[in-house]
Amino acid sequence: MTTSTISQFLTPSIQQMQPSGIRKFFDYSSERTDIISLGIGEPDFPTPRLVREACVRALEEGRTTYTHNAGLPELRESIAEYLHTNFQVHYNPTHELMVTIGSSEALDLALRVLINEGDEILVPAPCYVSYSPITNLGGGVAVEVETFAHNNFKLTPDSLLASLTPRSKVLILSYPSNPTGGIMTYEDWLPIAKIAEEHNLVVITDEVYAELTYGQKHVSFASLPGMKERTLLLSGFSKAFAMTGWRIGYACGPEELIQAMLKIHQYTVMCAPILGQIAALESLKPHGLAAKDEMMASYNARRISFVQGLRQIGLQCHEPLGSFFAFPSIAHTGLTSEQFAQRLLQEVGVLAVPGTAFGKGGEGFIRCSYATSSVQLDEALERMRQFLQTL
Q1: What pLDDT, on the 0 to 100 scale, is given for residue 202?
Q2: What's the CA gap between 1 and 360, in Å, rounded?
Q3: Which residues contact 1 (CB under 8 A, 6 or more apart)?
Q4: pLDDT for 7
Q5: Is the bond into 176 cis (omega within 30 degrees of 0)?
Q6: How many other C-beta atoms can be found within 10 angstroms of the C-beta atom of residue 133?
Q7: Interatomic CA distance for residues 109 and 376, integer angstroms
Q8: Mapped to the 3 state alphabet, what secondary structure does 322-363 carry?
Q9: Nearest partner of 173 among 156, 148, 158, 187, judged by Cα
Q10: Which of 19, 129, 191, 319 is least crowded, fewest Cβ atoms below 10 Å from its Cβ?
Q11: How far apart are CA 304 and CA 296, in angstroms?
Q12: Is 62 left (phi over 0), alpha (psi -120 to 50) or beta?
């Protein structure tokens, strides 16, 4: 057998899957040293020192074993307490909560246990790049639910109702939003909750940016009356706690759903890495929470300055009230999102992600991360200003 013939054995779903639109732009820039990257969804802070030191101590003590499949009991207890204190949702840490390898594994597990062939999974878009591919891998059909800049990319009942069919089974919610920075208030959620109940939808809510809100506190969908029973809450430590490389996430929800996910988890990965779990546990202690708040204040200052700068150079941008992304419109330039991002990178060395990487509704926008230094952000704005003048 030759390499050229092995493709006949690959599953059709893999052969048809497109590479990540984000990764493609990183590949474009890999050989250049003059790039300012606004593309990566990662804090520019290292994991706080006391968290790192706790892991060094754990290594010296020889803590290098497997843990319980669902995660360290003390970590699950700490996560449950944290969610109850901060987001008014209560989960039994023994039966309704599991620790995963990032929130991405949690999403994959959830969709694998929920999807039957042909089930429709509703995804408000623009949205994080992995929702549709993972849905397709599981035999489901991803259905984009349109959201719009004129109302800050909120999910509206009209858009949701227009997307429903008899095959609709799961609604994936991702607020605060990557890529738009949009959020949902308690009042915004109420009609969505009513639709979920009336149409008997299972709700998966990706809340990995829950701590990253500005001006108002995040409202967890699971905290609404009657919603906890039909909702799976996913989150993790990557974003707010500057722990992307530690790969620690978690899933909380009805016991039957968590136990079903745990079956796959124990056969595929056994458990999340113990050192990552120890780091997560340390992050939920008072010094870890204080460090998180300091990083939040820095993001907010950059957010205000960067969004103002985008508007000053001529890019209309709605106010992002969550995450660490701005989603400015480039529609007036006459270029597609892909063309704009490619030329911006090639001509002035600024890497932004075309909005179409996040679904069809992202056309006419680019995603810019402000999780980088103020000096870099200012330089990026100046280069973008020069680029816009050439169009």
Answers
A1: 98
A2: 40
A3: none
A4: 80
A5: yes
A6: 17
A7: 38
A8: ECCEECCECHHHCCCHHHHHHHHHHHHCEECEEHHHHCHHHC
A9: 156
A10: 19
A11: 12
A12: left
DSSP for residue 241: T
The alpha-helical segments, DSSP class H, found in 90-241 are: 102-114, 131-137, 157-163, 186-198
Mark residue 17 as left, alpha or beta (left: phi above 0; alpha: psi -120 to 50; beta: remaining). beta
Confidence at residue 3, expressed as pLDDT on a 0 to 100 scale:
56
Query: What whole-number distance in Å separates Cα of residue 353 and Cα of residue 69?
Result: 37
Task: Tell me if 152 sits within 8 A of 321, measured CB to CB.
Answer: yes
Q: How far apart are CA 39 and CA 62, in angstroms?
A: 38
Total residues found in the chain within this entry: 391
CA-to-CA distance for 97 and 254, rounded, in angstroms? 9
Provide Rg for the chain, Cα atoms: 21
Task: Decide: 134 and 114 in contact? Cβ < 8 Å.
Answer: no
CA distances in angstroms from 368 to 38, 45, 339, listed in the order given? 5, 17, 16
Which parts of the chain have pLDDT scores under 70?
1-4, 19-31
Q: Tell me: the pLDDT tens digits for 164-179?
A: 999 999 999 999 999 9
CA distances to 15, 16, 22, 332, 336 from 19, in Å = 10, 10, 9, 28, 19
In this prediction, residue 16 carries a pLDDT of 78
**CA-based torsion, 68, 69, 73, 75: positive or negative:** positive
Burial of 262: CB neighbours in 10 Å, binned 0-12, 13-18, 19+: middle
Burial tier of 298 (Cβ tally within 10 Å: 0-12, 13-18, 19+): middle
User: For 220, phi and psi rounded to 5 degrees?
Assistant: -75, 135
pTM: 0.94
* DSSP one-letter code for 365: B
CA 367 to chain centroid, in Å, comes to 13
Residue type at 389?
A: Q
Q: 141 forms bridges with which residues in the sheet?
A: 120
